[in-house]
From TrEMBL:
One BP annotation, GO: lipopolysaccharide biosynthetic process
Protein name (database record): Glycosyl transferase
Compartments, record wording: Cell membrane
Glycosyltransferase RgtA/B/C/D-like domain: residues covered: 95-256
Transmembrane segments annotated in the record for this chain: 54-75, 116-138, 195-226, 238-258, 286-309, 321-339, 345-363, 375-395
Protein species of origin: Rhizobium jaguaris
Lineage: Bacteria, Pseudomonadati, Pseudomonadota, Alphaproteobacteria, Hyphomicrobiales
Amino acid sequence: MRPSPLMGNAQLRIDRPDTSDVSKAAHSGTKSSTRRLSEVRAEAEAQSINPWKVAILLSAALTLYRFAIFAQIGLHPDEAYYWLWSRVPSAGYYDHAPMIAWWIWLSTRLLGDSPLGIRLFPILSVLVVSAVTVALSWELYRDRRLAVRAGVWLNAMPLIGFAALFATPDAPSMLFWTLAVWALAWLRRSGDRRIWLLVGLLAGLGCLSKYTNLFLGLGIVFWMILDSEARKRLFGPYMFVGGAIALVVFSPTIFWNFEHHWVSFTKQFGRIDSGQPSSWHTLEFLAGQFGLANPAIAIFAAIAVGIAWKQRRAGDFSSAAFLFALSAPLLIYMLLHSLHSRVQGNWLVPVYPAMAIMAAEGARRSAGSRHLSRMTKLAAPVGICLIVASLFYFASPLGQQASFPSPADKLIGWKELSQDIARYRPLHDARWIGTIDYGVTGELAFYAGDPQHVQEIVSRERYSFEMVDPQLVGQPALLVIPKATWMLPRLQKCLPQMEPVGEVARRAGKRVLERYTIFKINQAPQDIFSKGCTF
């Protein structure tokens, strides 16, 4: 049937729409399709990223940089003190468990007595912890982007970028804590109870690193109490055998403490009652952790904890809840400690890898927020760039001679101070140098190249690991003490014949960091190397 002319015109108008609209629609559709294709492609590429490769490559690059920088930075007084420990390996020491001394003993055998030789294993341990953080994230979430982000964010935390690289007990403590948590995550996923044996070994090595790691055992108990599913699947004889293995590994330090009147345990666990209650300590603790963790990362970790709490109330014990349960006893203890006295920022370093993972989970859950998404993108580059730039500054001549106080002040001027003091020794026929502080003792012993002839005369219980030549007591000596010390009147009672012979200063360029007075000692008490100057 042929249409009428009127119908034909109508049909023509219906079948031939405005070509400009078609063009616009086609163009819009093309742009939309292209954008969507790009998003899909980016998503596919992100999902194809090998989390091990990305995290390890970044950590390896940072590790090479850290080696170059930390070879130029002077020793912290604590590092020099632990170096003294390493000269006489022992199962325990007055201040801490022995692992850091064992590490330094081995590394200095490889690289010699140098700053880099002392810091070799702590720097490498951060590389290992970065890789383990990626593996732990993958074990918990099976999400490659989250695993990559957790490994990268760990290296964007200022505490990891600074404190964890020094040769202190924090380095092995964080390493073995993180390895133990990874083994627990493997146990949680696989249900293979034999993994408790590995957990016990790693937990024991952690306790040999720092007594802080004892709190991981409490964290395991806390997790098992809260997670009913874990109790059903994982509780059994292997758990107790793993605990026994941890005890056996840790037993040398226990026996050492027994033989030394529990001195090390008393010192560390007696801190909770020290000091006066002050709300400022708690505020300082919370604010310090917020900054040391990287503010953006701390916010995302808090978001993950909040989500885990809601899920726990709904009966779902999530991976974030698992990580938080393991960390909770240590966090609670430090919070309680802050109610009485100051908490050093580095004391929480073992839980930082778990915090990085929880933060990565919090960022994933916050992907719909424009502001939080922007913060997600900035957290790593800002944190890492700040750390890299700061390390470069501290290692440069500009940082070494800064005209204003900086965190690097404790690392500066020790070698020059030692050289200045050494000039007084032949003038007064001094056979040894006395000090009243363990940090100064370690620094002068390290840079003088004559450790046996630098001795602290106050807290002699710190040096039970070494035997001092008894002939030194009757020999002339120099006593180096801070000019403003309150101990001077008491020292004069212990050493009535001491007389001032000069002054020296530790400097950062033209800026004086601390002044010291040098006294000559003609003869010290016979028991000064056993009892010290008791007040």
